[in-house]
Amino acid sequence: MSDTSKTVKPENETVSSVEDPSSAAVPVVDPRLLVREEGFKGYLTEFKRKVRGGELGSLPVIIGLIIIWTIFQTQSSQFLTAGNLANIGFFLAATGMLAIGLVFVLLLGEIDLSVGSVSGLASAVFAIFVTKHGMNPWLALVLTIVTGILIGSLHGWFFAKIGVPAFVVTLAGFLGWNGLMLQLLGDSGSLSIPDNGPLHILGQRSFFLDQDVAGAYLLAGLGTVAMLAGSLIDQRRRRAAEVPYRPTSEIALRVGALAVVTFVAAYVLNQASGVPNALVVFVAALVITDFVLRRTSYGRKVFAVGGGIEAARRAGINVAMVRISVFAIAGGFAALGGMFFAAQTFTATLGAGGGNVLMLAIAAAVIGGTSLFGGRGNVWSALLGMLVIQSIQTGLDLLNMNTALQYMITAAVLLAAVVIDSVSRRSQKAAGRG
Fold it and tell me: What is the pTM of this model?
């Protein structure tokens, strides 16, 4: 018996060591989470992986923008002057505000065809409040934006609750709100708006801190400090949670790159008159909406609904609420964009929000990298896309080329962006990440 027990004992020890999961447990970690711990080498590997898988991000539009600027500078030495760059920054802000709202809608894989008409109606509503009712301009601005939000909510309600396709609802809005604008403006077809209050701040002759040279550098410094603080807070939070985080060296490089870009931009714009207020407000809107989409539960819900409605519903997300809110956001930004358009001429006219404004706003979001198929993109695509579009328009104006050519070139760029998006999605599916 003693021999048997001696023989069995080591067998039991062996079995116990094999069956005990704690003795041989190896933590399974997603390789993509190790990127930050590996430093720059990890990011380079991750970049190559994304490119092979079709995840190009903003790379195509940045390369395209460099090519566009190079071509126009070789054709006209005035293109990259401080004054011309300041004009690009000023005029892109109005359509860019519409594009920000459209990014939210496109993330759901939907479209809003009414934003141009809503922006025109907003300028007419603001003009009536101020000129015919003597309302305080700031109160009129708030009520105008609220009007845009309510209009967008109405579109979203018909879409989310009644089930009418967004294309049809917003097409009806495009026609109906344009008709209401014509009704409000009456036979004169235009209303002059006093150069004061919010319109004065957003006007072309208004610059941050009233043309004070320090104003541009103050903005650059604030942006740099904000990114540094946010990065360090995120690093500390992730380190405390014992998950991969960006090394301090990488944070320093990122912040340094931003500092170079912003201070160079500040220097260049100071050679003209400084940073246009319209551009400052536009960038501030980008920062706020980017935070909402990337750092809040609401933003994650928007991406979830855009990625798959049924999956989002089963995850407990109120899909109808998200849909309605997204169209409300688009309406609010359309109304705010209408204020930017009104600030360019200090008038509300029949042509406000008409012409190619809608198409350019959609094109800006798509060219900048937001997918037409939903679930992928960010609000910074509104800035990148508008930089491309406004650069083309301004460059062709400098070369005295007609509007027809502007439309054709913009159309070609838009088509190229959609083709890249489609090919990218196909590549991701082939790589198992679609």
Answer: 0.84
